[in-house]
Amino acid sequence: MTFAEAFALHGPDTIAIGKALGIPEHEADRLINRRMDERAQRRAHWKRTKAGLAEIRRQTQEWGNDHA
After folding, report:
1. 8-state DSSP, 61
2. pLDDT on residue 67
3. Cβ-Cβ contacts under 8 Å for 19 (sequence gap 6 or more)
4. Contact 51, 59 (CB under 8 A)
5. Domain boundaries, the chain
6. Exposure string (b/e) for 8-35, b if CB count within 10 Å is 16 or more?
7. Max CA-CA distance within the chain?
8. Within 13 Å, how many C-alpha atoms sit on residue 20's CB side?
């Protein structure tokens, strides 16, 4: 079983993931923390990207209104 499969099956349960993968609980906890940190970084990246696109749209609309 892979970590992704164990995480999908057990969620962030360190004991269950550790048993499923045959690793110590602290190692499962480290893997879970890494997974959650990566998810938070992806969300922050997309939030910045979305905000940047909104700013571009606003500037484009202002430019269009100024040159209409």
Report:
1. H
2. 65
3. none
4. no
5. 3-66
6. eebeebbebbbebbebeeeebeebbeee
7. 67
8. 18
Question: What token pair was written down for 58?
Answer: 């606003």
Q: How far apart are CA 25 and CA 2, in angstroms?
A: 15
Spatial separation of the C-alpha atoms in residues 61 and 65, rounded to whole Å: 6
Model pLDDT, residue 65: 73
Residue 68 predicted with pLDDT over 80: no
CA distance 21 to 32: 13
Summarize pLDDT for 4-44 with one digit per residue, the tens: 999 999 999 999 999 999 999 999 999 999 999 999 999 99
